[in-house]
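Narrative of accomplishments. A recurring question from our advisory board has been how the design workflow behaves on a single, concrete structure rather than in aggregate. To address it, we present the structure tokens for one chain from the evaluation set, followed by the sequence designed for it. No filtering or post-editing was applied between the two.
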């Protein structure tokens, strides 16, 4: 329980898929169990049956409900109407904490929170980038626009919460040293996720699991698979799990390369279910913040090959032999063939399980975030702002 008493917490983000959605679900469940009222505001046009099932699983922990509105991925004129709709919905929920995740969710949450603050309400405004706009090149036109917007919105932010040190460093380098309070709180896993995952029969050699878009590297995975077969001198097998707009292109590539009999594609599914189908998990991302899939795989006792991007070195260790260069199919192929020819070497490169479990637990994550909420609210109250009259107190 926060030293501010039970809180009303709203998480705002655009796309209910991937790591952001997982992060919010974990926080919502844990904070609800602690006696806080939690709600979600997110996009209504993203996600499918798998995400709908996840929403159903988290509904019992959403005392403030689930609000879904159309939110475009890119900046567009529709943002004005979507922003106003989200503000009206958020105001009706009388939040104490508004936590925006990702660039679009962060903008909506902080703008809504600032309007509420202007009316004298004690609302703490939080922002977690989760990569988002930080992936842009600062020399590009889009990068300059997004970073200028981020710098402007920083004035409306009470706390920046980064999911890894890398993310905080990139923010400082591309946007500028934070002019508001900031801290790092690592993503965390539930106790059950630290149970080892066994293999189902027959198991494939490699698993790619994630969004089907080039940023996550499915194309690199396919190219590396071809080269790994050549290097190992063996016919290999793989499973690619996930959904996304680019999936048909990857399916076409598999057909063109004659790999459809050895590389199977399946829609999104629970990660541990997918882990049981493969010996080694491959994360070929070109960019990441603190990817849950790496945490989940390591916790489940699966050997992992991953690119040296984002917070992944903070999970596996900066000098880990399991790390490869991003966007490099030859580098990834060498590691994949090495895992086939000498599986023990990759297993030996995985983190110590006891230390890993202590560092990346959901309890540690939720308590760290709640501590930040309490500190920001205390500062807001010190400025004479008052919580909504009907807020829990």
């Amino acid at each position: 329980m926060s030293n501010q008493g039970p809180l009303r917490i709203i998480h705002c983000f655009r796309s209910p898929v991937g790591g952001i959605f997982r992060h919010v679900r974990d926080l919502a469940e844990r904070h609800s169990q602690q006696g806080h009222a939690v709600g979600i505001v997110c996009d209504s046009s993203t996600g499918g049956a798998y995400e709908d099932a996840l929403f159903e699983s988290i509904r019992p922990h959403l005392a403030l409900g689930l609000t879904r509105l159309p939110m475009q991925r890119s900046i567009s004129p529709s943002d004005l109407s979507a922003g106003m709709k989200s503000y009206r919905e958020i105001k009706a929920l009388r939040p104490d904490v508004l936590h925006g995740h990702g660039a679009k969710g962060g903008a909506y949450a902080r703008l809504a929170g600032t309007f509420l603050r202007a009316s004298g309400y004690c609302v703490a405004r939080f922002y977690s980038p989760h990569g988002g706009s930080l992936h842009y090149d600062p020399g590009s036109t889009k990068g300059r626009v997004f970073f200028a917007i981020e710098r402007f919105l920083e004035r409306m932010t009470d706390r920046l919460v980064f999911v890894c040190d890398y993310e905080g460093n990139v923010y400082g380098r591309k946007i500028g040293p934070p002019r508001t309070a900031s801290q790092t709180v690592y993503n965390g896993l539930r106790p059950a996720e630290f149970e080892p995952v066994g293999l189902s029969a027959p198991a494939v050699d490699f698993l790619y699991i994630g969004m089907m878009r080039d940023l996550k590297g499915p194309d690199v995975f396919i190219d590396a698979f071809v080269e790994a077969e050549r290097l190992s001198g063996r016919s290999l097998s793989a499973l690619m799990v996930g959904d996304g707009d680019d999936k048909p292109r990857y399916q076409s590539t598999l057909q063109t390369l004659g790999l459809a009999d050895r590389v199977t594609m399946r829609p999104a599914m629970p990660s541990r279910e997918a882990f049981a189908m493969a010996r080694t998990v491959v994360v070929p991302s070109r960019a990441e913040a603190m990817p849950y899939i790496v945490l989940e795989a390591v916790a489940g006792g699966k050997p992992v090959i991953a690119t040296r991007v984002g917070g992944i070195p903070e999970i596996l260790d900066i000098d880990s032999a399991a790390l490869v260069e991003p966007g490099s199919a030859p580098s990834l192929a060498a590691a994949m063939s090495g895992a086939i020819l000498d599986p023990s070497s990759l297993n030996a490169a995985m983190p110590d399980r006891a230390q890993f479990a202590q560092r990346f637990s959901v309890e540690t994550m939720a308590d760290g975030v709640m501590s930040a909420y309490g500190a920001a609210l205390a500062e807001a109250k010190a400025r004479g702002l008052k919580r909504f009259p009907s807020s829990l107190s």
